[in-house]
Amino acid sequence: MEKQCGNCGFFSNYYVISMAHLCKTVRGYCMCNESKLKYKTMLKDDRGCPFWAAGDEKEEQQKEIIQNALLKMAKQIEEIALILTAEK
Question: Whose CB among 27, 30, 53, 83 lies 3.0–4.6 Å from 9's, allowing a Cys bridge?
Fold first, then answer.
């Protein structure tokens, strides 16, 4: 695997809103605290820096975090709906 910013565990894409949808861009930023880059915005195809770390697990972790957040939100919405219907 070639070490590029786009496949680094510290790389996080920027998103734009296009026609009411979020779209991933080719640009992103480095979340590595040890990196001394003045500007942390880069293209996903840029070469990895000395702090490059494999990002294989990052995507799975992000999916799990998002799934848990959605489940919590769904429970909160159910509770709000229960409160609103009980007040009638």
Answer: 53
